[in-house]
Structure formats: structure tokens, C-alpha cells
């Protein structure tokens, strides 16, 4: 059995790591693109901002 | 002690083994039909949203493929056609496929909800549930009608695509569902006629095994008859038009003719020419579905009714 510095197993493992890396990069690009499109379309996307949302508070009657 | 193997029992899969878990060939059908469903819908969708929606629908389909491979690993190990799949081949552990399937299912549903709308996302979740649980776990090993009811899972993608654009269901999307739903049984049974030994050994109740091959031939012909009116009807709705109607009439005439030829043959004649007619009708069925959806796209570009 020939001794190699790189086992065939490492080649398979690298294919997995590179593949997952590319998937993650693609996902980041996808979410960024979606954000740009949604904002351009003027979609109402209000996330929780750690304080009461003014838009959902009951209107106070103006005297 | 010349061989020290630290990784015993922990197979090192390649990336493409995980891709294979998602059944890329089935996915290509899902991508195409979902895209057509979304594209011909009367609501304009931004191209990037379209791309993302189709991608997440495909990912949901992939998730149900992984769940299917996890549950069916015992069957797959017996059948020649599926022995090379990652789990029976020992490259991926069952548990890994299960978790990949569950994670991708949840992920694709959430992302489709954010990209398109939550009705479409719920529909996708239902489709994954239907394929993984209703078809794979419940029906496939229990009834020879498995193909018929399971075909619904493959018929949902164009409806999900339509729902991404419109946020609902309408007669056009229901007819696109019917087109795939009634196409699936003759498509698969034609395959089963010339792949008989495999399903038999895996003890999957295929119609050919439980009710015999003459009965299967009758079923194939009957379904081509049922299918035709729905395919034509789709041409009379708002997504139809003269181009689609012409294509549908020709394709359905060919398909019914193929079903008739299969019906008129007996086993002896089929064995004599190596199932030539069955194989030809199976190939025709692939073109049948593909060209119907191509015709919808062409009709949409040329302007529907």
C-alpha cells in the first residue's frame, strides 16, 4: 500500500467542505438579493425592534 | 496493526452524495412545472422573486426526496435500479439523510414564505408531508394504488408556483394539477411493465404484481382516456389558446393511441419484441408532459385567450 500525504478520504471530505461553503455563499447572495428586491417593491417588512411598535399601538383620542 | 482506521462506521460522503439524496432528476421536473405554473399566472412577479420561489420549491422537493430515501433504504437495497443510492451503498447514514430532509423541509418552507407568500409556503409544507408521509410511509407498501395517490405529490408543484404569484388556487392551477395527476399512473405503469422483477423482489405492491399484467394494461389505457379531457379543458381556460390546444390534441391522440396499443398486446407479444411498445409509450409519456408545459409557456408568450 502506497503511503500518500493525502488520503483519498480527505479528498472526499474537501469536496463536502467546498460544496457547503459555496452553498452558504450562494445563500447569503440570495438573501441579499431578496432584500434589495423587497425593499425596492416597497413591501412592508417591520421587524421587532425591542420597543413598542408605534404602528400597532391603539390611537389615542385627540382632544 | 498496519491499518488504523479511525473512521470505521462513519462513511465519508462526497458533496455529490448529498446532492443525490435530493433526487436531482425528479427535481428537474419540479423546477420546470413550478416555473411554468408561476410564469403563466396572471400576476407579474419580479424575476428574482420568481427565481427564488422556484429554487425553494425545488429545495422542498429535494427535502421530501431525502426523507423518501431515508425511509425506503431497505427497499432500495433490494432493487437493482436503486442499489447505488447513497444510503444502501453505505456512503451516507440513514440518520444523516433524515436530518438533512427535515432541516431542508423547514428551511425551504420558511424561505418560500418570506420570498413569496405564506399560502404558497403552507402548500409546499403540505406537499412535502404528502410525499414523505402519505405516499412513502403509508401508501407505497400498502396498496397498488400507491402510484395514483402518490402522483398527487408530483402534481402539486405547478399549483405552488401559481400560488406564489396569485396567493391562491384557481381552475387553471387545478387543471395543471389534474394534468400531472392523471398522467402519472400510465407513465409509471408503462415503466413497471418492462421493469417487472425489481418491484416484485422488493415486495412493493405494484399493480403488475398484485393484479397481473393484463389488468395493468387496461388501467394504462383507461387513464389515458381520463387524462385527455383535462388536458384539453386546460386549453379552454385563461392560460390556454390555439397553440396549446393544437399541441394538446395531437399529444393526447398519440398518448391514447399508445395506451390502446399497450391494451391490445398480450405478454407473449411483448416478450417477443422486448417490450418495444411499452418502452416507446414510456418515452412518449415523458415528451407528453414536457411538451404540454412548453406549450403553456409558448401560448403565454404569444398571448393566451
From TrEMBL, chain A:
<keyword id="KW-0812">Transmembrane</keyword>
<keyword id="KW-1133">Transmembrane helix</keyword>
<protein>
    <recommendedName>
        <fullName>Cytochrome C oxidase assembly protein</fullName>
    </recommendedName>
</protein>
<feature type="transmembrane region" description="Helical">
    <location>
        <begin position="18"/>
        <end position="37"/>
    </location>
</feature>
<keyword id="KW-0472">Membrane</keyword>
Automatic annotation (TrEMBL), chain B:
<feature type="transmembrane region" description="Helical">
    <location>
        <begin position="220"/>
        <end position="237"/>
    </location>
</feature>
<feature type="transmembrane region" description="Helical">
    <location>
        <begin position="26"/>
        <end position="42"/>
    </location>
</feature>
<keyword id="KW-1003">Cell membrane</keyword>
<comment type="pathway">
    <text>Porphyrin-containing compound metabolism; heme O biosynthesis; heme O from protoheme: step 1/1.</text>
</comment>
<feature type="transmembrane region" description="Helical">
    <location>
        <begin position="146"/>
        <end position="169"/>
    </location>
</feature>
<dbReference type="InterPro" id="IPR030470">
    <property type="entry name" value="UbiA_prenylTrfase_CS"/>
</dbReference>
<dbReference type="InterPro" id="IPR006369">
    <property type="entry name" value="Protohaem_IX_farnesylTrfase"/>
</dbReference>
<comment type="function">
    <text>Converts heme B (protoheme IX) to heme O by substitution of the vinyl group on carbon 2 of heme B porphyrin ring with a hydroxyethyl farnesyl side group.</text>
</comment>
<comment type="similarity">
    <text>Belongs to the UbiA prenyltransferase family. Protoheme IX farnesyltransferase subfamily.</text>
</comment>
<feature type="transmembrane region" description="Helical">
    <location>
        <begin position="284"/>
        <end position="302"/>
    </location>
</feature>
<keyword id="KW-0350">Heme biosynthesis</keyword>
<dbReference type="InterPro" id="IPR000537">
    <property type="entry name" value="UbiA_prenyltransferase"/>
</dbReference>
<dbReference type="InterPro" id="IPR044878">
    <property type="entry name" value="UbiA_sf"/>
</dbReference>
<feature type="transmembrane region" description="Helical">
    <location>
        <begin position="48"/>
        <end position="71"/>
    </location>
</feature>
<feature type="transmembrane region" description="Helical">
    <location>
        <begin position="243"/>
        <end position="263"/>
    </location>
</feature>
<feature type="transmembrane region" description="Helical">
    <location>
        <begin position="118"/>
        <end position="139"/>
    </location>
</feature>
<keyword id="KW-0812">Transmembrane</keyword>
<keyword id="KW-0472">Membrane</keyword>
<keyword id="KW-0808">Transferase</keyword>
<comment type="subunit">
    <text>Interacts with CtaA.</text>
</comment>
<feature type="transmembrane region" description="Helical">
    <location>
        <begin position="92"/>
        <end position="112"/>
    </location>
</feature>
<feature type="transmembrane region" description="Helical">
    <location>
        <begin position="175"/>
        <end position="194"/>
    </location>
</feature>
